[in-house]
Amino acid sequence: MKIFLNLFMAILSVTTALNAQPSFTRQDTLRGAITPERAWWDLTYYHLDIRVNPADSTIAGSNTIQYRVLAPGQRMQIDLQAPMKVEKVVQNGKTLSFQQDGNAWFVELPDPRKPGAIETVAVHYSGRPQVARNPPWDAALSWRTDDNGKPFVATSCQGDGASLWWPCKDHMYDEPDSMLISVRVPAGLMDVSNGRLRGIENNGDGTKTYHWFVDNPINNYGVNVNIGDYVHFSETYQGEKGELDCDYYVLPYNLEKAKEQFRDVPRMLAAFEHWFGPYPFYEDGFKLVEVPYLGMEHQSSVTYGNGFQNGYRGYDLSGSDWGLKFDFIIIHEAGHEWFANSITYKDIADMWVHEGFTAYSENLFLDYHYGKEASADYVIGTRRNIRNDRPIIGLYDVNQSGSGDMYYKGANMLHTLRQVVNDDEKWRSILRNMNRDFYHQTVTSRQIEAYLSRQAGRGLSAFFDQYLRTTMIPALEYRAEGKKLRYRWSNCVDGFDMPVKVLLDGKEQWLEPVAGKWKQQKMAGSLNSLVLDRNFYVTKASTIEKSE
Predict the structure, then answer these.
(1) Same domain assignment for residues 314 and 350
(2) Of 139, 132, 155, which Cα lies nearest the Cα of 224?
(3) Does some domain include residue 229?
(4) Which of 14, 358, 442, 513 could pair with 335 in a Cys bridge, judged by C-beta atoms 3.0 to 4.6 Å apart?
């Protein structure tokens, strides 16, 4: 009972923030909508150049934003959240005027920009950013010290936004094509950020600047800064696109534990390249970086704080024991390299595209290494974490995600869809094609739903409406009337027509029920039992039996 309660509290901590129902304000719209002040320009490049001072928990510096003009525009929205402040904005050597509206800063350009032009604007800023109380679920900075009393600093900002600590276009629909991250830190400390290390600059004032270059599009919350007394080790993985550099940064007293625990990385890469296709960021390498919180999916710089143990903080969230066969944070957060960092939602209302597929990736990791039944045990076991409190898809244009059920209800929806496809190689091909066709793109849920329908070769709109937009679990209602079996779907949306596998008196058979409409078939004799295939996330209605 104690273990179950601990598991339940762990799940609650993951989903509580997602399940809160806020009232919406103008600030929610400014953050969550593609405003006119955002729409006319397209990001091409960022250079974030900052000094991080652990002594007083401050950040100061600039972000140079390069953009392509899409349409005439003169007013630009830059996002930066209090208590951080924009100090000045410069373009072509001239200081521009700007106005603050809460967390949005509107920069006035001297005249409308010409479509097709490539321009830059440098935003200078400083301040003491919000401190994370329960990272990564309340987003901000973690200012900690390690066991030796040295500064241990890390960012985590999904949901609340990257503008908590740096000025940017803080909406997921637009990503820069590449990025340079320059972080100045006190001597004796190291910064680890995204991409590859281009160089280390000695500044002559007791500080060093680490320059990291990201050679791929990157979402804003995926940008990270990790500062500590790190030691480094590495290996090379022979992957589908050749050699992949895998680099690991941990605190010195955890080095030996990390060398043992991080063996899950090549196991993860083998499984996910099999199911999803090549790792999406070979140019930037793969890093796993120790941080003072649980972990996060920062692109090519995945952060880790799971205590060098298997499971989720040592627990199996499925209750099947299979969750203790792998380090949850390594597998889950690295799965986001495919679903979050390469394929990225445009609006956080569609966050299930990140979390549903990535929670499902845990199941596929087990499938690859331990077999299909083990993976089924695991994903079915996670159903106990589903609350069906509200729909998985949230509200659009106000920066509001849906239910935390996007994790394990999303995973079980995809596991159910695999059964509907009923061909494991076809299912693998669908997942690989999806990662190829949406490579490094921002997407909507509707795009993904339509794509899966086309690839599966059947209409799935009612299927996705059922699982993503309602809290109802489909119920197979049936009646045995002598040698006839009548059946239909209930507790479902109109048009729901998912086929389902059952055991009729121990014999496997597919049924093709539809919503609200009785269908019937003949049987050799009277029906004694009907058992649903456990791999379908559905329920069974009460049986009604009649004699002929």
Answers:
(1) yes
(2) 155
(3) no
(4) 358
Three-state SS across 33-60? CCCHHHHCEEEEEEEEEEEEECCCCEEE
The residues that bridge with 235 in the sheet, in sequence order, are: 246
Angle, CA 177 vertex, CA 174 and CA 181 arms, to 5°: 100
**How many structural domains does the chain have?**
2
Backbone angles phi, psi at 346, to 5 degrees: -80, -35
For residue 17, what pLDDT is reported?
47
Asked if the structure places residue 390 within a domain, the reply is yes
Full DSSP string of 229-294: S-EEEEEEEEETTEEEEEEEEE-GGGHHHHHHHTTHHHHHHHHHHHHH-S-TTGGG-EEEEE-SSS
**CATH number, domain at 527?**
2.60.40
- What pLDDT is stored for residue 159 in this prediction? 84
Long-range contacts of 321-324 (CB under 8 A, 24+ apart): 322/366, 322/370, 322/374, 322/375, 322/377, 322/378, 322/381, 323/362, 323/378, 323/381
8 A C-beta contact, residue 161 and residue 348:
no
Q: CA triplet 217, 132, 251: central angle to 5 degrees?
A: 75
Could you tell me which of 95, 165, 85 has the C-alpha nearest to residue 131?
165
- pLDDT of 138 reads 81
Phi/psi-derived region of residue 374, left when phi > 0, alpha when psi is between -120 and 50, beta in every other case = alpha
Strand partners, 288: 248, 302
Instruction: Give the pair of three-digit tokens for residue 450.
Output: 């339509």
Q: How far apart are the C-alpha atoms of 431 and 277, rounded to whole Å?
A: 8
Given a contact cutoff of 8 angstroms between Cβ atoms, the answer to whether 483 and 469 are in contact is no
Q: Which domain holds residue 528?
A: 475-546
Taken in order 159, 453, 413, 477, the sign of the CA dihedral is positive
Q: How many residues does the chain have?
A: 548
Q: Which of 446, 470, 494 marks a domain boundary?
A: 470
Q: What pLDDT does 545 receive?
A: 56
- Series of mean pLDDT values for 10-residue runs along the chain (548 residues): 44 49 85 97 98 97 98 97 98 97 97 95 97 85 96 94 97 98 97 98 96 98 98 98 98 98 98 98 98 97 98 97 98 98 98 98 98 98 97 96 97 98 98 98 98 97 98 96 93 98 95 96 88 97 57
Position 2 in a domain: yes
Residue 36: cis peptide before it, omega within 30 degrees of 0:
no
**108: helix, strand or coil:** strand
The pair phi, psi for residue 267, each rounded to 5°, is -65, -40
Six-digit token pair at 418? 């695999």
Least Cα distance to 294 among 432, 430, 138 occurs for 138
Relative to beta strand 507-511, strand 500-504 is antiparallel
Residues 330 and 355 in one domain: yes
What is the maximum span of the chain, computed from C-alpha positions, in angstroms?
94
Structure pTM? 0.94
Q: Which residues of 491-502 are buried (b: 16+ CB within 10 A; e: fewer)?
A: bbbeebbbebbb
